Amino acid sequence: MSVPEPIRNPEIKYTQLFINNEFVNSGSGKTFPTINPATGEKISDVQEGDKADIEKAVAAAKEAFKLGSTWRRMDASKRGKLLRSLARLIERDAVYLGSLETLDNGKPYKQAFGEMFFSSSVIDYYAGWADKIQGKTIPIDGDFFCYTRHEPVGICGAIIPWNYPVPMFVWKIAPALAAGNVVVIKPAEQTPLTALYVGALIKEAGFPPGVVNIVPGYGPTAGAAISNNMDINKVAFTGSTEIGQLVMQAAAGTNLKRTTLELGGKSPNIIFADADLDMAVAASHEAVMTNMGQCCIAGSRTFVQEDIYDKFVERSIQKAQQRKVGDPYDQSTQHGPQVDEEQFNKILELIESGKKEGASLKTGGGRQGDKGYFIQPTVFADVQDNMRIAKEEVIFINIYYCFMVNCYNVVNAQAPFGGYKMSGLGRELGEYGMQQYIEVKNVVIKIPQKNS
Ligand code: ADP
């Protein structure tokens, strides 16, 4: 796809909470700054939501979901139409949204632009589901008529990270809305701007007030208020394992809200000696470097069969050195800054630990330039399993996954995504992702006499 030129200074249109289809200030009036990671400078102040604002958003969602409401009475096919309208609006504004994402997150504009189309594909996929969510009739014993109804779960809370702000946003809202739910979502504090703009598009698409509510704010306040809320029926979380555990504890300790979690890991790539070396090096490089390594499924450990180890390392060094780091608005840039100072410091500290623990630093290892949060593409060799760089999440979330063979980073709307063990609970995307937003009600009706 040819990528139009970015808008280098995108206007910041929305910095308030989005509740009931209106942009409003937080109850406390507090704000927090959002920072351009390419410069370290403030972009703007954003209204900071906390518990009271989450409660206000939940009240709006509850009203939108009550029996007889516009949303509850809407034809399923119309829900699909609204979702498709939203997808088209995201595509219409992809240059602006991509430019805004680059400003707020630091990712290369070309990638950010592409993410808007990935996001619209996810919305289109779930739009198709809206009028295809159906129950079954079940031939139970006795004189009964038995059927299932697939109903929306109700008020869905969502807490999302900063690495793919718009895709993460739509992964949560699209299946929820297709199934007829209402949503209260908290974007990550590092990247609130694109989510708020999508809020305006949700209104423009024609969703009734209160169906989607967006509350920017911090995790321990606004985030925890979602996982502890007694009226929220489901929470979907993407982020670190530590916080995922807190979310699940809160869900269990309050109203047993259904919980889905996409958490941390340390995904390995395994390269055998008979692999096409060029392809294997290129795929492993992209697996770990894409999105500055801030990728849910980053291949942050590479295991290489001994026979080709030296050659593989040598080629990986070349690749890392050729990677173009710099101005994320420049379309030839492959690598922007890390998302914030915290991640930047965390990664530099981990690189130091790798050196101290005896791994060989082959290239990179330091800051790039003197402003913003840029880190040189880094390759370590001779890494042992017990070293911190082999165990700790270099970035923050990497998910142990199904498996990908002879490829990497292949994520599509149609196929499920999620982790095993402490890397997650439940699946997103595809039909499996849809099921997380549906309650199955079994209905049994006594009848005088059944016939086969
Ligand atoms: P990271 O360390 O990469 O920021 P986190 O797991 O801390 O990953 O954050 C992912 C999301 O979880 C963000 O939206 C963040 O605000 C939110 N969050 C952080 N702490 C909590 C918490 N105690 N309860 C609920 N959400 C939280």
Automatic annotation (TrEMBL):
<dbReference type="InterPro" id="IPR016163">
    <property type="entry name" value="Ald_DH_C"/>
</dbReference>
<comment type="similarity">
    <text>Belongs to the aldehyde dehydrogenase family.</text>
</comment>
<feature type="active site">
    <location>
        <position position="262"/>
    </location>
</feature>
<feature type="domain" description="Aldehyde dehydrogenase">
    <location>
        <begin position="24"/>
        <end position="394"/>
    </location>
</feature>
<feature type="domain" description="Aldehyde dehydrogenase">
    <location>
        <begin position="403"/>
        <end position="443"/>
    </location>
</feature>
<dbReference type="InterPro" id="IPR029510">
    <property type="entry name" value="Ald_DH_CS_GLU"/>
</dbReference>
<protein>
    <recommendedName>
        <fullName>Aldehyde dehydrogenase domain-containing protein</fullName>
    </recommendedName>
</protein>
<dbReference type="Pfam" id="PF00171">
    <property type="entry name" value="Aldedh"/>
</dbReference>
<dbReference type="InterPro" id="IPR016161">
    <property type="entry name" value="Ald_DH/histidinol_DH"/>
</dbReference>
<keyword id="KW-0560">Oxidoreductase</keyword>
<dbReference type="InterPro" id="IPR015590">
    <property type="entry name" value="Aldehyde_DH_dom"/>
</dbReference>
<dbReference type="InterPro" id="IPR016162">
    <property type="entry name" value="Ald_DH_N"/>
</dbReference>
